[in-house]
Structures are given as C-alpha cells and as structure tokens.
C-alpha cells in the first residue's frame, strides 16, 4: 500500500496569519498543514478531512487529536494474548505527535482550541498561557488514551473513567516538554458515583486546561512537588495549580471553588483572598509558592479578582 499522508514525516509548515505576526496579542486557532498535504495529490483528502493539527497562536501550543499511538498500543496488547513474543511498536511517543486526520481528531482539536480562546479572555488565563513562552519546545495537547491508562496511579478512578483523568503525560520520561493529556467530554458512566458527581460540578474544560498548563509550563519544576502537604491538597505543586485554577474561576465569577486535589469544595468563607489567608497553614503555603514561582508573582498583581490570595502576599 502506498503510504498516505499519515505515514509521512515531512516538515510541518505553519500558516501564519498576517495579523498574528503584527500583533503578538492576537490569538488564533491556526491550522497546520503537512507540506505534502498541500500538493494536488492529497487535495481530495484535504477537502474531505480538512486540516491537520492546530497551533494556538502566538503560543508554542499544538493541539492534535491523534490517538494512533493508543490504537497501536491496544492492538499490541491484543496481539500479545495470541503471541507472547509480539513486538511492541517502538516509536509510540513519536507517533503520538504526528498529525492526524479524520472527523474525531478534528472535533477534538476544535473543542480544545475554542476552550483555549475562552481561557484567553481572562487576565489570569492569559498569564498562564504566557508562561508557556519560556518552554524549550512545543507543548502538545493530546487526548487521554490506552497508553496513559497504564501509567496512571491506581485506585482513584475506576473503569472507563480511569482513562479520562487529565494529566501531564508520563509515557516518556525523556520528554523535554511532556504533553498535556485531556479528553473534553466524560461519558455518562463517569458521573454516576457521588464523588464523580461532585467533581463534575467543578469540572470544566477551561479550568482543567488552566490547571494542566500551570504544570506543563514548568516541566522541570520539582521543588513544589516534593513538598507534601499531608492533606487534601497532596503537595505544593497541586496546591499551586489548584489555586491558579481557582483564581481563574473567580475572575470568571464562579462561586464554587476547589478545596483540594480531590472533589473537595472550598468553604464559602475561604472563597475570597482575605478569607483564604485567615488560615495560618494555607497562608504559609501561599507565601512559599509566591516566593518560588514567578507565575504566582505575576498573578498577584490582579488585586481586583475576588479570590486571589497571591495578591495579599
Ligand atoms: Zn494537577
């Protein structure tokens, strides 16, 4: 079989809109075309499937609905049952970042990019997005798949929901910038348990993206991760990401804020900067994070946001 555009690995060409070049503040969901894709040979295909991958200009963020690595991985798992010596495909981390075509991939890319555009409408969201400018390589946003499932810690989620936990990819320890793994819609099955119902109230794609981008924009940051809190916040890295997520929610005028790295909701009296800082333990954590993280210091300037404990340091 003639290899199709999916199997080619030619250089990607970015179509930069003139406006984005003039003004770095202009944010666009810019489609990326494979250079082969622009030839007549694939004209029909392009008409049929549209473009491949999206670059969220002007940020180094690439969105791809590619899940071929997961399909190949699943295939290999099945094959192994028949033939225990079946070879595992070796380049899954590479395959994961290749452009993909098809309505599913397109739907995914559009949903994520539209959510990022909504994130960018808020000051806190823009500040988090801007933090990605210092990344040494592109940050990929990819769907959660079979391969991720086996890397995730057991016990928190079950069944179908297992593969849906948004997270920073753990599949390749050598990644300079590990991708964000997120699946926009949870199937109904994941909302049945009480925990998941509560979580789903607090669960929206924009806040999830903000949270994961806080982790992703600082790929080598380990300092906060090492400081365990011994409570619902788990560690200072999660504490930091959830606080930023809450600042974003609060700017958006949400009244319901997260109260930990689980399904906890913040008590009403703690949903303002002052209220939150009354708690001595939380105040100490805020100070520690603020001192260590430039993003926290930048966010601290937005004193007008109702919940923004960084503004009181
Ligand atoms: Zn997190």
Structure explained in plain terms:
The chain is of the alpha/beta class. The protein contains 14 helices and 7 strands. Strand 3 and strand 4 form a beta hairpin. Helices cover 40% and strands 9% of the residues. It has a 7-stranded mixed sheet. Helix 9 packs across helix 11. It folds into 2 domains: 1-200 and 211-219, no CATH class; 221-313, no CATH class. It binds zinc ion. Zinc ion binds next to helix 9 and helix 11. Residues 1-21 are annotated as: Disordered.
Descriptive keywords:
7-stranded mixed sheet; 2 domains; 313 residues; 7 strands; 40% helix; binds zinc ion; alpha/beta; disordered N terminus
Question: How does the SSE layout of this entry go?
Answer:
Blueprint: E1 12-14, H1 18-22, E2 28-34, H2 43-49, E3 52-57, E4 61-63, H3 68-82, H4 92-95, H5 103-119, H6 123-130, E5 139-142, H7 146-149, E6 167-168, E7 180-181, H8 194-201, H9 205-216, H10 223-226, H11 236-251, H12 273-277, H13 280-292, H14 294-299
Parallel strand pairs: 4-5, 5-7
Antiparallel strand pairs: 1-2, 2-3, 3-4, 6-7
The protein binds zinc ion.
Region (Disordered): 1-21
SSE run: EHEHEEHHHHEHEEHHHHHHH
Relative helix content:
25-40%
- Percent of residues in beta strands? 5-15%
Radius of gyration: 21 Å
Can you count the helices? Answer: 14
- How many β-strands, per DSSP? 7
Q: Give the termini separation.
A: 63 Å
Which ligands occur here? zinc ion
Query: How are the strands ordered across the major sheet?
Result: 1-2-3-4-5-7-6
Q: What class do helices, strands and sheet pairing give?
A: alpha/beta
Largest sheet: 7 strands, mixed
Which regions have little confidence, pLDDT < 50, spanning 5+ residues? 1-24, 34-39
Mean pLDDT: 80
Tell me, briefly, the overall form. Answer: globular
Region (Disordered): 1-21
